[in-house]
Write a structure and sequence with these properties.
Length: 104
Amino acid sequence: MRVKIVEGMLMGKVVITTTIGKEGIEGEHKKELLVADTAQAFLEAIDYCIQHPERANDIASHAEEKAAAQFNPREVAEHMMSIYTDLLSSPHYRPGKLTAHPAK
């Protein structure tokens, strides 16, 4: 699950993502989110939001409703806390520095 995408949707924000980024997340292009698979498509999606602010607000509202129906915000928060807790309890964690691989 793409937590940042779901989090943005739950916050009622317009989300611009790729087809791969939205995998596992229900939502249709220009209904609950904007899908852009190229740099040009991202620019066009941003321009669409600027040129159509009322439509962008509708997309954001629909996104919030869709995400709330698909994902329980409490469960998402608990999942994120679990990830953070696992990272902090990792033997590789040192305050101020988290290494991706064990030090040799």
